[in-house]
TrEMBL record:
Upper classification of the organism: Bacteria, Pseudomonadati, Pseudomonadota, Alphaproteobacteria, Hyphomicrobiales
Regions annotated as coiled coil: none
Domain of life: Bacteria
UniProt keyword annotation of Transferase present: no
Protein name in UniProt: Cytochrome c domain-containing protein
Organism: Alsobacter metallidurans
Keyword Transport among UniProt keywords: yes
Length: 99
């Protein structure tokens, strides 16, 4: 699970270098995401889609999840900066996102 927590750390401190102690911080940060998203080999779509392989993936493209029209038509491809902007304020990044 730490390698997935690392991804969250990278996304939460996208412009800062990541250090070993950040993995624990990332796991703590990911606990907020865990309510809706899963990661790992056995991950399944729940309230939100699986986050495995998020970076480099087109928004609204994970199979088996029903995305909002706004996200489907956003044209976004997830990278660190795009995701960091999105998680700060999804409705500002993708107008029309449901609340």
């Amino acid at each position: 699970m730490l390698k997935y927590a690392f991804v969250c750390v990278v996304l939460s401190v996208a412009s800062s270098p990541v250090h070993a102690q950040d993995a624990a911080s990332g796991e703590k940060i990911f606990n907020q995401c865990r309510a809706c998203h899963q990661v790992g080999e056995t991950a399944k779509n729940t309230v939100g889609p699986v986050l495995n392989g998020l970076i480099g993936r087109k928004a609204a493209s994970h199979d088996g999840y029903s995305y909002s029209t706004a996200l489907k038509s956003s044209g976004l491809t997830w990278d660190k900066a795009t995701f960091a902007d999105y998680i700060k304020d999804p409705k500002a990044k993708v107008p029309g996102m449901p609340g």
